[in-house]
Automatic annotation (TrEMBL), chain A:
Belongs to the leucine-binding protein family. Residues 41-412 form the Leucine-binding protein domain. Keywords: Amino-acid transport, Signal, Transport. PANTHER family: LEUCINE-SPECIFIC-BINDING PROTEIN, PERIPLASMIC BINDING PROTEIN OF ABC TRANSPORTER FOR NATURAL AMINO ACIDS. This is Leucine-binding protein domain-containing protein. The keyword Transport applies.
TrEMBL record, chain B:
This is Branched-chain amino acid ABC transporter permease. It comes from Rhodovibrio sodomensis. PANTHER family: BRANCHED-CHAIN AMINO ACID TRANSPORT SYSTEM PERMEASE PROTEIN LIVH (PTHR11795), HIGH-AFFINITY BRANCHED-CHAIN AMINO ACID TRANSPORT SYSTEM PERMEASE PROTEIN LIVH (PTHR11795:SF371). CDD domains: TM_PBP1_LivH_like. The chain crosses the membrane at residues 6-29, 36-58, 64-85, 92-111, 142-159, 188-210, 222-251, 263-280. Belongs to the binding-protein-dependent transport system permease family. LivHM subfamily.
From TrEMBL, chain C:
SUPFAM superfamilies: P-loop containing nucleoside triphosphate hydrolases. The keyword Transport applies. It comes from the Bacteria. It is a multi-pass membrane protein. It comes from Rhodovibrio sodomensis. It is found in: Cell membrane. This is ABC transporter domain-containing protein. Its main location: membrane. The keyword Ligase does not apply. Signal peptide: none annotated. Keywords: ATP-binding, Cell membrane, Membrane, Nucleotide-binding, Transmembrane, Transmembrane helix, Transport. InterPro entries: AAA+_ATPase, ABC_AA/LPS_Transport, ABC_transp_permease, ABC_transporter-like_ATP-bd, ABC_transporter-like_CS, BCA_ABC_TP_C, LivM-like, P-loop_NTPase.
């Protein structure tokens, strides 16, 4: 009896010890944080780093770090460096909530880059109640179109715009590289938060442009093969397939369609319009497909190429999905921080949020800039800036949404080549 | 046209079924001897696919890279089992099940730590299919089915002809009796783990061929389909697993074609549940 | 203040996971159901509660929020909460009814698959659930009306403490009473429980439903705490987190499991601070998933370490101590034979046959057991004696033939029904409830369906105490009768062979059956104890119990049995008084001639 008691105590002791270590870790981590807070301006990356959407965090962080390095190497924001804290949402709702809780209440981050469409549902209360400025490079979901004011911004156009752009380009030969207008499209959409929100906008826009979708196929993401789904799509004898999916599912579906003899056109979303996707799917397979890219103007296509080169030099790898969106999100955050510091003498959540529109939206006497270094110079000299990014003019409306012209690109000789631009007002 | 579509779906179902069947055999073999269903089994698939990719990237020809990976993962399987499972063999079912779940977490997150979270392309050339009487037959799937058939024939020969196979079946039938009859249980156990992991790695390579891209969670996601195949056939029965794999492959593809694509996997599970309601031990399962 | 908000949300989450883990503990720790799809209950509870309480489509609140869901019942929160429990319970009922025939692995994987089917349905039936969009703006009880927004999280925590505390208290209550005792007995040995007349399928189903209802209630607490519901929450990994919580805490112990849930949350969220370890992030800078993945490697390793080195968790389930008995000891076990006003043999077996493969273990056997007598059943090994007991008691079904107990046909009845008809049987190797104490073994056997019902457990408090006292009295008397009082708090698994035999006998005695079938009650027991066991049998027989005893020790048979039946090769070879049988040439030829006569 006594022995079992000691054993129980020991057992409790060891496990309790483990828990205590974890708890002490929490406290120890928070204590230096409080001090470090003076030195560093912390930005939370509320993104999935594990789970089925782990690639999102992997894509965003290096780009964010590149911009932060640019800021820090130029002396930071008045001597304070920008640092990142990861908040892994794991692709599960309540993990997204606790990750946001930790970033907001423990790390006391000034701003959040993220979240994705899925995590926003769990994190929204924490973010809104604490007025943490949130700039999402990843959540195109239509669910966010009217979700919150003042603190929510995103540097990815709503899927409702992207969907319309695809339909517009597909049905109008002036946007296509010598191809006929699509008459009979089929739509394939993955059943996942980042994709289903394209479904309605695309289908509706095709209706509007007079080429109704012959069939919409919602497929299960992550399947090893999509032969039957593809067969179902091809049974409609489509001249174009509009495909919304993760890069891997897209590669799989296109491979399966190729194997099933499909020779028609493909339209994919921004997620695939990057060189990484060509590498993943294989250049031969994707030759001739159309993709969508956010651009701010005809000229900005060049800036996008310059960015790609810069990132390659920085990271030794090609920029991936959400890279351009992240570049804009971080520049917006950094410039807003700088302006807040220069004008108010400090950076807080509230003045950071208030400064975002001031540096991003156009106005009289503002100088248009495309990166942090140029913008910082103007701000330090007492001027005002209007940041124009890689994904568009980055002008936020009252709900923090951007509108943007879209570049239509095509894979030619194994590289994405811009074939046309759809002006923002062409989508109304 | 309709018949053609049906035949086409059958061809696709068989191709997927072959991959599932191979993977299911590896899982069911280890069940036969160890008497627990290994939730970390999917990681053998992932490891096999990634190891092949790594070796092919290092310059090995793809078939050679695959063969080396199969052996390497087999050996890794023995080591992993010795560390994680062997000490628990006499503690009943639950500890083994839970340990295998923990192991699955460890392995697939370790793959992500090493290889990164982004999906990678499996280095396979793109080929147009053969067209047989209006039905498309993807070439790499013919290769997949061929490899699957050869693998199963080898497993069959091993189980029915070799001494090892006989000892494995003896241990599977009655571990205590086999031990008293002088079968060296630890050796049989190690051999079983090797086979299970190696076949799993092969299944992973076939899966990579089928799905074109790799990601760290591929095996974990595929595991439930493999479970469905194993249980459909009856746990512990290699021939049942083969049959179950084909049925699940056909079920997923037929369901996606004729009912609804967004429920694709659900068909496999519904099929499984229905079969278990009628035959609680699966189609070819005799014992618990 | 900020840390407080963080802690508040984690404690709330800990309570919700605690409720989930307690629900799983009822299903696995008590009913032994290996459920790997527990997250499904969580999911249906969350969606039920959300849809029940949302303002209906078209209402001002709906329009203002720009909502798009198709169903909102606008019920008060409490109704949503109750419906969530109901939904969880009903799902458990469906799973229980369909999977009742499945065993261990099949059940584990089938439940895993069922949860995935539920998740697919929630994800694809977008008209109801909004699928991958999720629904936000789920009403939060009292938010903005009774409690201001900035204090809401704290108020919600207080509410959760009260609700989870109350529920766990009620479940713990049920677990320590005859209902829970029976569940633990079933987990140890379901067949033995059935031969004691327990309707185990029903009891397990009740436990499954309680566990399911708790999962559903936790879902309700979860969805209202965040104000959203999204199918992305209900992935398989959550099921395994709940398992980890249960195992950490100590399977079978509800309070331990509740602690386990808090440990889980501390570990799960504490490992988020891994990135504060200096230099760790620099190990693989190009892979942002490095540290987050390492976190799950650690959690996986922890799961393995806990199972291997701390299999019983921080608060292991301990043997219970029996309460001291006060009051007058009732007389020992008077059989109810007097109530049966039926004449003739108490048990008649007619032309019963049972085949295993091509072999007939029992082959057209017919025999009668005389009322109020001790009948011996002897025969060489493999004669079919134990199989005959199985056929009579319903453990196995005969292929042909009939069995009558008090002229009532019982051959097609399951063991619990034959037991309720007044039959008792012991096994050659006593099938005790190993984790239960001697006293609990007797209490389980002595309790009737009324005292084990949930209504008695939770509602009829006074009646419950009286019933329990009455059974405890009988248990005390049996303990005294068998001289086992000193071992009353010893787990049955710790008993010696002879003690096990005695307890098995006692377990049947306390039920006061009219006929007892004993399979070698004195085998493997020393001489003195064997004699004592038969003295007890003789004493019970004097009080009116009839006996059919399989026994190899011929001197015991000759001394105690009124009649002897000899079986050989599945059939009845001879019957009569011991002396007659001993003289029968066929018997001598077949059996006694083998040199075993004493």
């Amino acid at each position: 009896m006594k022995r079992s008691l000691t054993r129980a105590l020991r057992r409790t002791g060891v496990l309790g010890g483990l828990a205590a270590v974890a708890a002490a870790g929490m406290l120890a981590a928070t204590a230096p944080d409080a001090r470090a807070h003076d030195a560093e301006l912390e930005v939370g990356l509320l993104l999935p780093f594990t789970g089925q959407y782990a690639w999102v965090g992997s894509n965003v962080q290096p780009v964010a770090q590149m911009v932060a390095d640019e800021v820090n190497q130029a002396g930071g924001i008045a001597g304070h460096e920008i640092a990142f804290v990861q908040g892994d949402t794991e692709g599960v709702v309540d993990a997204g909530t606790t990750a946001a809780q930790k970033l907001v209440n423990v790390n006391n981050v000034l701003a959040i880059v993220g979240p994705t469409s899925l995590s926003f549902s769990g994190a929204r209360q924490v973010i809104l109640q604490n007025d943490v400025p949130m700039v999402s490079p990843t959540a195109g979901t239509t669910a966010l179109d009217r979700a919150c004011r003042d603190v929510c911004f995103r540097t990815v156009p709503s899927d409702s715009l992207g969907g319309r752009a695809i339909a517009r380009a597909a049905t109008d030969p002036q946007y296509l590289a010598g191809d006929q207008a699509t008459r009979k499209p089929v739509l394939m959409v993955g059943n996942a938060p980042a994709m289903v929100s394209f479904k309605q906008p695309i289908a509706r826009a095709f209706d509007t442009y007079g080429a109704p979708v012959a069939e919409t196929i919602t497929y299960t993401p992550g399947k090893p093969s999509y032969r039957s789904e593809v067969r179902g799509a091809l049974a409609n004898d489509p001249d174009s397939i509009v495909l919304v999916g993760t890069p891997e599912d897209t590669a799989r579906i296109m491979t399966n369609a190729f194997q099933a003899g499909y020779q028609g056109r493909w339209f994919v979303t921004q997620d695939q319009t990057n060189s990484d996707f060509i590498e993943l799917a294989g250049a031969r397979l994707v030759e001739g497909i159309y993709g969508l890219e956010e651009v701010s103007s005809d000229a900005s296509a060049e800036r996008n190429r310059a960015f790609e080169q810069r990132f390659r030099d920085y990271a030794g790898a090609d920029p991936q999905i959400f890279a351009t969106n992240t570049f804009d999100a971080m520049n917006v955050v950094a410039l807003a921080m700088l302006r807040a510091h220069l004008r108010d003498g400090e950076v807080t959540r509230a003045n950071l949020a208030a400064n975002i529109e001031r540096i991003a939206n156009p106005g009289a006497g503002k100088i248009t800039v495309h990166d942090y270094t140029a913008g910082a110079k103007v701000l330090r000299d007492g001027g005002e800036v209007n940041y124009d990014g890689l994904v568009g003019p980055t002008d936020f409306d009252a709900w923090g949404n951007i509108t943007a012209p879209f570049g239509i690109r095509q894979v030619q000789n194994g590289r994405w080549t811009t074939v046309s631009t759809i002006a923002a007002d062409a989508l109304n | 046209m309709d018949l053609n579509a049906f035949l086409q779906t059958l061809v696709y179902g068989l191709a997927l079924g072959g991959t599932i069947a191979v993977s299911a055999v590896g899982l069911t073999l280890s069940y036969g001897v160890t008497r627990f269903i290994n939730f970390a089994y999917g990681e053998f698939l992932t490891l096999g696919a990634y190891a092949t990719l790594a070796l092919a990237g290092a310059g090995l020809a793809l078939p050679l890279a695959g063969a080396v990976s199969v052996v390497a993962v087999g050996l890794a399987g023995v080591a992993i089992a010795r560390l994680a499972f062997d000490p628990l063999m006499h503690r009943g079912l639950l500890p083994l099940l839970v340990t295998s779940v923990g192991l699955a977490f460890v392995l697939h997150n370790m793959v992500r730590m090493v290889a990164g979270a982004n999906p990678l392309r499996f280095p396979l050339p793109l080929m147009r299919p053969w067209e047989v009487a209006g039905v498309f037959v993807p070439r790499e799937q013919v290769a997949t089915i061929a490899v699957a058939l050869v693998a199963m024939a080898l497993v069959h020969l091993l189980l029915s002809r070799s001494l090892l196979g006989k000892s494995m079946r003896a241990v599977a039938d009655d571990a205590a009796l086999a031990r008293s009859a002088g079968v060296a249980a630890p050796r049989v156990l190690a051999a079983t783990w090797f086979l299970s992991a190696a076949i799993g790695a092969l299944g992973g390579i076939l899966l990579a061929v089928t799905q074109v891209t790799l990601d760290p969670a591929m095996g974990w996601r595929f595991l439930l389909v493999v479970f469905a195949a194993v249980l459909l056939g009856g746990i512990g029965s290699p021939y049942g697993a083969m049959l179950g794999g084909l049925i699940v492959g056909l079920g997923v593809e037929l369901g996606a074609t004729y009912v609804s694509a967004d429920y694709a996997y659900a068909f496999a599970f519904v099929l499984l549940i229905l079969v278990l309601l009628a035959r609680p031990r699966g189609l070819m399962g005799g014992r618990t | 203040m900020d840390l407080l908000a963080f802690a508040t949300s984690l404690i709330t989450l800990g309570l919700i996971y605690g409720l989930l883990a307690v629900g799983l503990n009822v299903q696995f720790g008590f009913a032994g159901v290996l459920n790997f799809g527990y997250v499904a209950f969580f999911a249906v509870g969350a969606f039920t509660s959300a849809l029940a309480t949302l303002p209906p489509p078209g209402s001002p609140a709906y329009v203002e929020a720009g909502a798009q869901y198709a169903l909102g019942l606008d019920l008060p929160w409490l109704a949503g909460f109750a419906l969530a429990g109901l939904a969880g319970g009903l799902l458990a009922l469906v799973i229980g009814l369909t999977s009742v025939r499945l065993r261990t692995h099949y059940l584990a994987v089938a439940s895993f698959a069922m949860a995935e089917v539920v998740r697919y349905a929630l994800s694809n039936e977008t008209w109801l659930t909004r699928g991958e969009f999720g629904i936000s703006g789920i009403p939060q009880p009292g938010h903005g009306t009774y409690v201001p927004t900035e204090l809401y999280a704290y108020a919600y925590l207080v509410g959760c403490v009260a609700i989870v505390g109350g529920l766990v208290w009620a479940v713990r209550q049920a677990s320590e009473l005859p209902f829970g005792r029976l569940l633990r007995a079933i987990r140890d040995d379901e067949l033995a429980a059935r031969t004691l007349g327990k309707r185990t399928a029903r009891t397990k189903l009740q436990a499954l439903m309680i566990g399911g209802a708790l999962g559903g209630l936790a879902g309700s607490l979860w969805t209202h705490s965040l104000g959203v519901v999204h199918v992305g929450q209900f992935v398989p990994i959550v099921t395994f987190q709940i398992w980890l919580a249960m195992l950490l805490g100590g399977t079978g112990n509800h309070l331990g499991v509740l602690i386990g849930a808090f440990l889980l949350i501390v570990i799960r969220e504490g490992t988020r601070f891994l990135d504060a370890v200096p230099g760790l992030s620099a190990v693989a800078e190009s892979n942002p998933s490095f540290v987050p993945s390492l976190r799950f490697v650690l959690i996986g390793l922890l799961l393995m370490v806990v199972v291997r080195f701390f299999p019983h968790g921080v608060r292991p389930d301990r043997p219970r101590t029996a309460p001291a008995f006060t009051g007058d000891l009732p007389a020992v076990a008077a059989a109810q034979a007097a109530q049966d006003a039926v004449e003739g043999p108490i048990l008649s077996v007619r032309a019963v046959t049972k085949r295993f493969g091509g072999l007939a273990a029992v082959d057209g056997a017919s025999l009668d057991v005389a009322r109020g007598r001790i009948t011996g059943l002897i025969g060489p090994n493999g004669a079919g004696k134990s199989t005959l007991l199985d056929l009579v008691s319903g453990v196995q079904r005969p292929d042909a033939g009939t069995v009558y107990l008090n002229r009532r046909p019982i051959a097609a009845l399951p063991p619990e029904a034959t037991a309720q008809a007044g039959l008792a049987r012991t096994f050659q190797n006593p099938r005790l409830f190993g984790h239960l104490t001697v006293w609990e073994n007797l209490m389980v056997a002595g309790a009737d369906a009324r005292s084990e019902s949930l209504a008695t457990t939770w509602l009829r408090v006074a009646g419950r105490r009286a019933l329990e006292h009455e059974i405890a009295g009988r248990a005390e008397a049996v303990l005294a009768f068998l001289a086992l009082s000193g071992l009353r708090d010893e787990p049955a698994a710790h008993l010696s062979g002879g003690q096990r035999k005695l307890l098995d006998l006692g377990r049947q005695m306390i039920r006061r059956p009219s006929l007892m079938l004993l399979d070698e009650p004195a085998a493997g027991v020393n001489r003195t104890l064997a004699n004592r066991i038969f003295e007890h049998i003789g004493e019970l027989n004097r009080q009116g119990t009839s006996f059919l005893i399989v026994e190899h020790e011929m001197d015991l048979v000759m001394r105690w049995c009124d009649r002897v039946i000899v079986m050989h090769q599945g059939g009845v070879l001879a019957q009569g008084t011991p002396a007659e049988v001993q003289r029968d040439p066929a018997v001598i030829e077949a059996y006694l001639g083998g040199g075993r006569a004493a």
